[in-house]
Design goal:
11 strands; globular; 7-stranded mixed β-sheet; 2 domains; 289 residues; Spore Coat Polysaccharide Biosynthesis Protein SpsA, Chain A; alpha/beta
Length: 289
């Protein structure tokens, strides 16, 4: 049976760490180890916790602050498992995720699948369900990974893929390093199989690395495209057509909305009707039919 290693980078997230570790220790298929990487935390409580951290199967690596992708790479290099999960310190897993994900990789003798994601339940400031997709899902098109990230960072993957890719891009400290990693996996011919169950839990906060990354989106997208030039060149036509269809759909939807708002009863002169008419006229200008 292949061994599973869990890598948990931690930067000033000590208040959540036990919850993340508990979700790993509760797995029906237990990992061989949990490698926690203290990525140069500045929070005294986090540092005190990790200096004396004593949980089953856990070991802590102390490093200077180099960012999330470097912390993941450091943990994976120190890990022994053929299957790897990189869990953020404030997220967690369903108890059956490892068993079900590893079973897919165990049975995949041809090594078609490099990773096994699952549906993701957000918790914290929002509670939506992200229905992650994979090659086994109807409607999934791998080239569309170039437009949006379809797979969550806590997904189990083969260490072999990480070695072939060369690890996470350590220059992408502002985000999208996992998106970059999955594109590189696809480009090397690997697929991923999605477990259509909510087995990963992602903590949504008002301020997080994701929100900070979105603020830098144009710069990060440029780097993503430069890192994966061959992938984008190969899929350029499909990506442009898909983006054009999205724009046209938004135009149609906004045209319908603006017409509905502008069609407010003209005899209604209340403030709400006036606002609706102004919004409708503005939308028509921004999104002409």
């Amino acid at each position: 049976m292949k061994q599973i290693s869990v890598v948990i980078p931690c930067y000033n997230q000590g208040g959540y760490l036990d919850e993340a570790v508990d979700s790993v220790l509760a797995q029906s298929r237990r990992p061989v180890e949990i490698v926690i990487v203290n990525d140069g935390s500045t929070d005294p409580d986090t540092n005190d916790l990790l200096a004396a951290y004593d949980r089953p199967g856990c070991r802590v690596l102390q490093t200077a602050n180099r960012g999330l992708p470097a912390a993941r790479n450091t943990g994976i290099r120190a890990a022994a498992g053929e299957y790897v999960c990189c869990l953020d310190a404030d997220d967690k897993y369903h108890p059956e995720y490892f068993a079900r994900a590893a079973a897919v990789l165990d049975s995949d003798q041809e090594m078609r699948y490099g990773a096994v994601p699952a549906w993701v339940r957000f918790f914290g400031s929002s509670h939506i369900l992200w229905k992650t997709m994979g090659h086994n899902c109807e409607g999934f098109v791998s080239s569309m990974q170039g437009l949006r990230n379809n797979i969550q960072s806590a997904t189990m993957f083969r260490r072999k893929c990480w070695e072939e890719i060369g690890g996470f891009d350590e220059s992408m400290t502002l985000g999208y390093e996992d998106w970059d990693f999955w594109i590189k996996m696809l480009h090397r011919g690997y697929q991923w199989f999605c477990l259509e169950e909510e087995l990963i839990y992602y903590r949504r906060k008002e301020q997080s690395m994701v929100t900070r990354a979105d603020a830098e989106r144009p710069r990060l997208l440029e780097q993503l495209i430069r890192n994966n030039r061959e992938f984008y060149e190969r899929n350029l036509i499909a990506l442009l057509l898909a983006r054009d269809e999205e724009v046209r759909r938004l135009q149609r939807e906004n045209a319908m909305l603006s017409q509905g708002l502008a069609g407010t009863n003209p005899d209604d002169n209340g403030p709400a009707a006036g606002i609706c008419r102004r919004v409708g006229r503005t939308l028509k200008k921004i999104f002409p039919a």
